[in-house]
């Protein structure tokens, strides 16, 4: 069932993959957002650089805060994703937003299972 997928921890090259979907992956070392920069360049944020993370719904963002790719009308740079157009907006799609040290720009990406992604970041911080 979608939304109830069991995520198994696996190890790849010494990194424990705690969460992975088609938009991002979270390991014991950091968060990788796929297609962060055009055309298809990923961004990996080391775990020690992440100062805060939450779902877009917890942040209560306005519709103008979102963009399919790039910077919306706030300080969030969005990786390529779906459901973030200001004209067509799908509230059932979840997004992860992270703040990092030494940057005023937050990073955001779509996630398939926001609760699992947040749990994975919680788990990575406790390792």
Architecture blueprint of SSEs:
Layout: E1 10-12, E2 15-20, E3 24-27, E4 30-37, E5 41-46, E6 50-55, H1 56-59, E7 70-71, E8 76-78, E9 94-100, E10 106-111, H2 114-126
Parallel strand pairs: 8-10
Antiparallel strand pairs: 1-2, 2-3, 3-4, 4-5, 6-9, 7-8, 9-10
Please provide a written account of the structure.
The chain is globular. Strands 1-2-3-4-5 form a five-stranded antiparallel sheet. The chain has a five-stranded mixed sheet with strand order 6-9-10-8-7. It has 127 residues and is mostly beta strands. The chain is 13% helix and 40% strand. The chain contains two helices and ten strands; from the N terminus they run E-E-E-E-E-E-H-E-E-E-E-H.
In summary, what is this structure?
The protein is mainly beta and 127 residues long.
List descriptors:
mainly beta, disordered N terminus, 13% helix, 10 strands, 2 helices
Radius of gyration: 14 Å
Total helices: the number is 2
State the low-pLDDT regions, or none: 1-7
Shape: globular
> Helicity range of the residues?
10-25%
By secondary-structure content and strand pairing, the structural class works out as mainly beta
Strand percentage, roughly? 35-45%
Largest sheet: 5 strands, antiparallel
């Amino acid at each position: 069932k979608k939304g109830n997928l069991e995520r198994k921890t696996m190890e790849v090259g010494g990194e424990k993959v705690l969460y992975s979907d088609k938009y991002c992956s979270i390991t014991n070392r950091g968060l990788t957002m796929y297609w962060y920069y055009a055309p298809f360049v990923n961004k990996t944020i080391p775990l020690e650089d992440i100062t805060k993370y939450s779902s877009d719904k917890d942040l209560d963002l306005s519709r103008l805060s979102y963009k399919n790719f790039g910077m919306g009308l706030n300080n969030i740079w969005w990786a390529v994703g779906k459901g973030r157009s200001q004209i067509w907006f799908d509230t059932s799609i979840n997004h992860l937003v992270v703040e990092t040290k030494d940057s005023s720009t937050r990073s955001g990406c779509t996630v398939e299972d926001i609760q699992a992604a947040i749990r994975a970041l919680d788990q990575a911080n406790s390792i």
